[in-house]
Amino acid sequence: MRTVEVSRVVDASPSAVADALDPVSVVEYEGSFSVFDVEERENDWLVVAGATGLQLVLRFEEYDSGIHYEQQEGEGQPLDTMETTITYLSSGGGTEVTAVSVVEMGVRPTVLTDRLAAWKRKGELKRALRTLAADVESR
Description:
Helices cover 31% and strands 44% of the residues. The protein is α+β, with helices and mostly antiparallel strands. Strands 1-7-6-5-4-3-2 form a 7-stranded antiparallel beta sheet. The chain is globular. The chain starts with a strand and ends with a helix.
């Protein structure tokens, strides 16, 4: 299991960042998958996302200053474990956004496959924060 973290200060208020971080936009900001379906429930959302030949279910929860999501268990999931928390805090004239993700492929040799999964995940998180910044800074 590996943990990756990326941070970025965006030139927007925390409320603008909060408004931009919903389950669909988070998946789209990452850029690896398309959203196929969203089920809003009482305290969370289930998002079905995927790409050619691959589909996964993500469970999202909102917090006061962030959003947390995790891959749900099931056959055909790309990873054994994937949990991510995105938080945002006021920082000077902008907002510091931090994404922390834990990934595990569950394929031997895990020292290599988990490293590969973490490398890919870090790229997705960097892209997500870059795209989020472009989105909120252009409003």
